[in-house]
Structure formats: structure tokens, C-alpha cells
Amino acid sequence: MAGPEADSQFQFTGIKKYFNSYTLTGRMNCVLATYGGIALLVLYFKLRPKKTPAVKAS
Amino acid sequence: MNENLFTSFSTPTLMGLPIIIMIIAFPALLYPTSNRLISNRIRTLQQYLINLILKQMMAIHSPKGRTWSLMLMSLIIFIASTNLLGLLPHTFTPTTQLSINLGLAIPLWAGAVILGFRYKFKTSVSHFLPQGTPILLIPMLIIIETISLFIQPMALAVRLTANITAGHLLMHLIGAATLALFSISTSTALITFIILLLLTMLEFAVALIQAYVFTLLVSLYLHDNT
Predict the structure, then answer these.
(1) For this UniProt entry, which segments traverse the membrane (chain B) (predicted)?
(2) B196 HSE (CA, 13 A, CB side)
(3) Which segments of chain B have a pLDDT < 70?
(4) Residue of chain B minimizing CA distance to A23
């Protein structure tokens, strides 16, 4: 960490304003977004309906 | 031979009762206390040494971090004295037990991390992403940093356990080898004995260094989070 980070020294626009690896807020949002993405993935695989194979008529 | 090598690491019992709590509490008896401001020479030397370590270790901390001074000083003195006492023959060293080291490492690490998340949430979370990371590496690096955070207490505990246990084992083995070689070849036994002496000197240093490293790392985790 190079000293106190002044978010105001970086002027980003658009999505980079919220998701970048330079400002404190940007880094926090990236980290939270990654954790959120992993949580969504885990939820998706847990909750997706399991495909049961069709019963073959004998 | 194998049975003798590892019995020194088993939980000590006296007439069937475990006495490990007494062994852990024992080093505290070796440090005299007094209610006088200026006491005798031993107390003055003790205070001087503790002040020396205290100033060196707590200089980098903010006032909030310095509230942990008592905890960190107790920690370093406990680990250093336990390790040094373990170098005496036939003694039991609590810090060779992973359970005890985990019991020291996990609460201290967790305390520092929870403190960081409680009072400086944004800074603590942004630690997971180093500044200036390229965009494509961001998710991978966050996962790696998270894993490295959770490995910290394990590394603390295992580092101390492994260093002290390995040193004790080596001393046992080389001592047994010296004894066995004495009747076979005295000159080789003498060389092995010199190796044992050098190893013992190394173990003295390791005992103190490991205590210092443990406490320093806990203090660094605290510094990151205060």
C-alpha cells in the first residue's frame, strides 16, 4: 500500500468509476462483485433442477 | 528406539492425571513481581528487557493498535520462555503441540481481522485487491488473496510447531547417535558431539526467533487492520 489513497486523485468515468483497481471504493466494489458472483454461481448449481433420466418401458 | 523418540512429545501425566495446564502456567512463576515502583536488580532487568521489546514492537502502531501491547508482550514472553525451558533435558514443551499453537494463533488472528472489518470495512475489503492490478487478473487475485488470508493462522501455528518439534527431534537423534558411536569410534562420537553443541546453540536462537516471528506477524496483522 503506497500511503493514504485519495480517491479524488483518480478521475474515472462510466463503469470504471465504480469498478477499478486504483481507488479504495473501486477495489472494494471489485472484491464484493467477485464474492457476489461466486455466491450466485454456488446458488445456481445448488438450486438447478436435477435432470432425472426417463424410465425405459420394459 | 522409535518409542523413545516420540514419547517426549506426548501429553505429560502424573499418576494418570494430565498436568499440561500446570506446565503451561509454570513459566509465569519464573518472573518475579513486585508492587514497588523501583524494585531489585532482577525486576529492573526484567522491566528493561520488556520495555526494549515493547518499544521496538509497538512503535509502528497507532494508538488503537497499542491497546494490544499487553497481549503481545505476554505472548512473546510466554512463547520465548516455553521454548527455552523446553531445551532442558526431559522437559515437555507445550509449543510442540499444534493444538496449543492453533489456540494461540487463531484467536489472535481472528481478533485482528474482525477488528479491521468492524472499524475499517472499506480498507479491509480493499486489501484483497492490490492497487494497480490488471483487469483480467482481478477475480483470480481476489480468490488468491482470500485463500492467503485464511492460511495465515495455520501458517503461524504450523511454523512454530514444526520449528520447535524438528529442533527437539534432531537433538534427540544426534544425542542418541553420539551415545551409540561412543563405544564404536570415539573420534566420530566427538564430531557428532560438536554437531550437537552447535545444534543446541542454534536451538537457543530458534527458540527466541520463533517467539519474535510469531508475535511480529500477529502485530503486522493488527497493523494492517487498525
Answers:
(1) 12-31, 67-88, 100-121, 133-151, 171-197, 204-222
(2) 18
(3) 1-3
(4) B131
Residue B102 lies in a domain: yes
Cβ B75 vs Cβ B222: under 8 Å: no
Name chain B contacts of A7, Cβ cutoff 8 Å: none
* Domain total in chain B: 1
Amino acid identity for residue B123 in this structure: T
In single-letter form, the type of residue at position A3 comes to: G
* Nearest CA-CA partner of B214 in B149, B157, B154: B157
Does B85 map to a domain? Answer: yes
Task: For residue A19, list its beta bridge partners.
Answer: none
- With beta carbons less than 8 A apart as the criterion, state whether B9 and B167 touch: no
Any domain includes B1: no
pTM value > 0.90: no
Residue B2, domain member (yes or no): no
A53 has pLDDT over 70: no
Nearest to A21 among B122, B125, B132 (CB): B132
Residue type, B143: I
pLDDT in tens, B88-122: 988 999 999 999 999 999 999 999 999 999 999 99
CA distance B181 to chain A (A): 56
- Exposed / middle / buried, residue A28 (Cβ in 10 Å: 0-12, 13-18, 19+): buried
pLDDT in tens, A9-40: 777 778 888 888 888 889 999 999 999 999 99
Query: What b/e string do you get for B43-62 counting C-beta neighbours within 10 Å, with b at 16 or more?
Result: eeebeeeeeebbeebbeebe
Note down the domain range covering B114.
Answer: 7-225
